[in-house]
Amino acid sequence: MKFKHLLSFIAFSFISVFLFAQEQVNEEINKAVRKHGLEQSKVMEIASWMTDVYGPRLTGSPMLDKATQWAVETLNEWGMSNVHTEEWGPFGRGWTLEHFDIHATAPNYFPILAYPRAWSPSTNGVVEGEVVYIEIEEEADLDKYKGNLKGKFVFLDTIRVVKEWFDAPAVRYDSEDLLDMANASAPVARRRSGNYRGSGQSLTQKLYKLLHDEKPHAIITRSYKGDLGTVFVSGVRTVEGSAWEDGVEVVPQLTMSIEHYNRIFRMLKNGLPVKISMELKSSYNSDDPMERNIIAEIPGTDLADEVVIFGAHFDSWHTGTGATDNAAGSSVMMETARILLETIKETGIQPRRTLRLALWTGEEQGLYGSRAYVGDHYAEVEGYRNVQALKPEQQTVSAYYNLDNGTGKIRGVYLQGNQAVDPIFRAWLAPFKDLDATTITLQNTGGTDHLSFDAVGIPGFQFIQDPMAYSTRTHHSNMDNFDHLVEDDLKQAATIIASFVLHTAMRDAKLPRKAIDIEMSQD
Ligand SMILES: [Zn+2]
């Protein structure tokens, strides 16, 4: 071998070693995953059952139990293994809205668009009364209203000026947005300071205490956003304890559409007495205080003791059918499981690690379901992030993938500060460039169940999704319905996640982990 040839041989060897070290992409898997995910999708069919038939899915409600039963039956029918529910709790009482109507009756009649906040109790039949706006700037103001609010409808907010929509409510990320995410530096670890509530009672708490004592017919607010028929509604506010705890007293609370709220507010300012008539029937169910996560598996082979988990929260708020939050994520994850079953059948490729689907409940009230699961299996955790001790099973999870940012397609992945997975995810995303998923960002995203895993040192990821009309229209609103699910986007998401899950299951090593931040509680 001539010296020159030797040099090129060495260079070639280096390149081969480099190529070999690069993350493997299995074309056969991706071909089958695309066929079942993009061409033979069932995601909209799944979503229709989950929303139109089994929605809304408020944690604790009998409807959530029915939805859970349907999901378990469906997963069994498909041939998933080890389909079961895992209990967490006690959560408390469920709540179901049974009847609601509300009208203005003076100075003239008009129907009102408003919704009870979750866990609002029934009124005593039809109730009628005057609307009063109460203005509280300091504690002394509370005295003015003592003894004057019984039988009234209490307005707590001032007018919100409505602006016309000159920009489309739905958006996708453009290349500039994605470039910003890709170039963002790793987030600085923030340590939360201990006491959020501050000492003593806040003025708002004192106001609610007054309202509880006074017993008005209802407390009425308008959300800080929403118009043109869209109303953003979540749960009631209480003086002490959570609304779903047995025995906690709740005053009926409503969120009114902004146009009707503002109209009534302006009439009051003009000195005209406004009267409302309302009937609210709801029921609490406290027979079973425990709640359930749904688990289903596809067994692994040589590394079957290790798992790749993919999940989303299954529960929702109550005024729509919980379509974009989060039947979108749950349908995509169920569809991912179905695509994986079909892909395994078609290619004969058996996953090395066990694939585990998890549908969480209690997310909307504080990530309860996923935190309980992590607590049962992986670590003792105090509060949200104070890890006290790890359990042996913590070592068995390669990754947790989550979807909970609405109906938008996947544009990439948040690394959640785990830089070592960057080249791996880059290689796995590359074949999906034609589906617009290209961006890897060091940024974190919060607010959902991957945090429960991230907190205990398990690589937990949430995908970057196009925003669509999530924050402007559907997230926690009465318009969170099937019609706002975008079919092509959900198909794309399930396809990419199926590929990620199977690639995670097939690689020799588990995904790299970041150093765990065990914060022993100081207080
Ligand atoms: Zn959600």
Q: How is the secondary structure organized here?
A:
Layout: H1 3-21, H2 27-39, H3 43-53, H4 62-78, E1 81-88, E2 94-106, E3 110-111, E4 114-116, E5 126-133, H5 141-145, E6 153-155, H6 175-183, H7 203-214, E7 218-221, E8 253-256, H8 258-269, E9 275-285, E10 291-298, E11 303-313, H9 323-347, E12 353-360, H10 368-377, E13 379-382, E14 386-390, E15 397-402, E16 410-414, H11 422-429, E17 439-441, H12 450-454, E18 460-465, H13 470-474, H14 487-506
Parallel strand pairs: 5-6, 6-7, 7-8, 11-12, 11-15, 15-18, 16-17
Antiparallel strand pairs: 1-10, 2-3, 2-9, 4-8, 5-9, 10-12, 13-14, 16-18
Helix pairs in contact: 2-9, 2-14, 3-9, 9-14
Bound molecules: zinc ion.
Across the major sheet, the strand order is 1-10-12-11-15-18-16-17
Structural class: alpha/beta
Let me know the largest β-sheet. Answer: 8 strands, mixed
Q: Could you tell me how far the N terminus lies from the C terminus, measured between alpha carbons in angstroms?
A: 71 Å
User: Could you say which overall geometry the principal axes of the C-alpha atoms support?
Assistant: elongated
Strand content: 15-25%
Bound molecules: zinc ion
Poorly predicted sequence stretches spanning 5 or more consecutive residues: 6-20, 191-199
Overall pLDDT level: 93
Helix content: 25-40%
Radius of gyration, CA atoms, in whole angstroms: 26 Å
Number of helices: 14
Q: Count of DSSP E strands?
A: 18
